[in-house]
Design a protein that fits this description.
The protein is an alpha+beta fold and about 190 residues long. It is about 30% helix and about 30% strand. The chain has two domains: about 120 residues, Lipocalin, CATH 2.40.128; about 35 residues. Helix 2 runs antiparallel to helix 3. It is elongated and about 80 Å long.
């Protein structure tokens, strides 16, 4: 009889262990998750150490996180714009808050939809602004004036007086984060 009870107890423990293992879900390294910014961020107004939150977008790119998950991060370093350089910030995303309040440690970075990460996020540089405005002027000039208008666009790229921008992101802005280490959800 004791052997039967022992075997039954062992079977019960094994079943519980298998059930607990089945409840765990692992989100693999490299998973890209679509998120929405909750906290306004700006290299003009924020400083190093400021926290921010994101929440999971209602989208097919949840990466396996449950609906309602929030992500917590902080600005590691903030550099406002200067006369020649755009504002930039180093960003770290370290926690996922699951529905119900359970916190999980994560390592994630901002990325594009294809998973290219960017630990440092920057504003628009003078070169980028000139290229964009020069292309618009050149395209419009090309339509109206032919080759001479296109040359005007190239000149505008070099001569337009511009200043670099600070980063400024308002709540509701959509983006992506990339999970840098596997995450186990319980």
């Amino acid at each position: 009889m004791d052997i039967a009870r022992g075997a039954a107890a062992a079977a019960l423990v094994a079943a519980l262990a298998l059930g607990a293992a089945a409840e765990k879900m692992v989100i693999p390294e490299g998973t890209v998750v679509k998120v929405i910014l909750d906290t306004p961020l700006s290299t003009k107004d924020n400083k190093s150490g400021d926290p921010f939150t994101l929440h999971l977008a209602d989208d097919e790119k949840t990466g396996g996180f449950p609906t309602g998950t929030k992500f917590h991060g902080k600005l590691v370093a903030v550099r406002p714009k200067t006369e020649k350089k755009a504002g930039s910030a180093d960003v770290s995303i370290t926690r996922a808050e699951l529905p119900g309040g359970h916190m999980i440690e994560i390592v994630a970075l901002p990325s594009n939809e294809d998973g290219k990460t960017k630990e440092t996020v920057t504003g628009t540089s003078i070169k980028e602004k000139r290229k964009k405005k020069g292309s618009v002027i050149g395209g419009a000039g090309g339509l109206l004036l032919g080759p001479i208008g296109s040359i005007g666009g190239l000149v505008a790229r070099k001569t337009l007086p511009e200043k670099p921008d600070d980063i400024s992101a308002k709540p509701g802005r959509k983006g992506y984060i990339k999970i840098m280490q596997p995450v186990t959800l319980k």
